[in-house]
Amino acid sequence: MILLDNALLNPSPGLIFWQLVVFGSLVFILWKFAWKGILSALKEREGEIEGALRMAEETRAEMAKLKSDNDKLVAEAKKERDFIIKEAKEASDKMIAEAKDRAIEQGNKIMEDAREVMNQERVKMMSQIKKDVATLSIEIAEKVIRKELSDKATQQSFVSELVADAKLN
C-alpha cells in the first residue's frame, strides 16, 4: 500500500487560500488579456464555419440546378439527334425514290428507243424483202417468159394477145 501524505488528503486553509488566489489571478489575467481574443477567435471561427456551411448548401443547390439543366440539355440533344436522324432517313428515302423513278424513266426511254429502232429495222427489212421478192419475181417471170417464148410462133401469139387486151382496156 502506498502511504499518502496527510496534507494532500486534508489540505490546510492556507493552501486553499493560496490556490484560490492563484486561480483567481489566472482567471483575471485570462479575462483581462486572453478572454476577448479567445471569444473573438471562436466567433470568427463560428462565422467561418457558418459561411462554409452556407457555401456548401449554395453549392449543393447550384449542383442540383446544374444537374437539372444538364438533364434538360441531354433531353434536348436526344430530341435534336432523333430529329436529325429522322430528317436524314427521310432525305435518303426521298433520294432512293427519286433515283428509282429516274431509273424507271430511263429504262422506259431505253425500251421505247429500242422499240422504235426495232420498228425502223422491221420497216427496212420489209422494204428489202419486197425489193428482193420483186427482183426474184421479175427474174422468175423473165425466165418463164423466155422459156415460153423461145420459139417464134409462141412469141407472135403472145404479142397478139397483149395487143388485144390493150385495146380493150
UniProtKB/TrEMBL annotation:
Coiled-coil residue spans: 42-94
Organism: Lacihabitans soyangensis
Transmembrane segments: 15-35
SUPFAM superfamilies (UniProt xref): F1F0 ATP synthase subunit B, membrane domain
Family: Belongs to the ATPase B chain family.
Protein name as annotated: ATP synthase subunit b
Main location: membrane
Keyword Repeat: no
Entries under InterPro entries matching the protein: ATP_synth_B-like_membr_sf, ATP_synth_b/b'su_bac/chlpt, ATP_synth_F0_bsu_bac, ATP_synthase_B_chain
Function: Component of the F(0) channel, it forms part of the peripheral stalk, linking F(1) to F(0). The b'-subunit is a diverged and duplicated form of b found in plants and photosynthetic bacteria.
Cellular localization per UniProt: Cell membrane; Endomembrane system
Membrane topology listed for this record: Single-pass membrane protein
GO terms of molecular function: proton-transporting ATP synthase activity, rotational mechanism; proton-transporting ATPase activity, rotational mechanism
Keywords: ATP synthesis, Cell membrane, CF(0), Coiled coil, Hydrogen ion transport, Ion transport, Membrane, Transmembrane, Transmembrane helix, Transport
Assembly and interaction partners: F-type ATPases have 2 components, F(1) - the catalytic core - and F(0) - the membrane proton channel. F(1) has five subunits: alpha(3), beta(3), gamma(1), delta(1), epsilon(1). F(0) has three main subunits: a(1), b(2) and c(10-14). The alpha and beta chains form an alternating ring which encloses part of the gamma chain. F(1) is attached to F(0) by a central stalk formed by the gamma and epsilon chains, while a peripheral stalk is formed by the delta and b chains. F-type ATPases have 2 components, F(1) - the catalytic core - and F(0) - the membrane proton channel. F(1) has five subunits: alpha(3), beta(3), gamma(1), delta(1), epsilon(1). F(0) has four main subunits: a(1), b(2) and c(10-14). The alpha and beta chains form an alternating ring which encloses part of the gamma chain. F(1) is attached to F(0) by a central stalk formed by the gamma and epsilon chains, while a peripheral stalk is formed by the delta and b chains.
A Pfam family assignment: ATP-synt_B
GO cellular-component term (any): endomembrane system
PANTHER family, per database record: ATP SYNTHASE SUBUNIT B (PTHR33445:SF1), ATP SYNTHASE SUBUNIT B', CHLOROPLASTIC (PTHR33445)
Keyword Membrane: yes
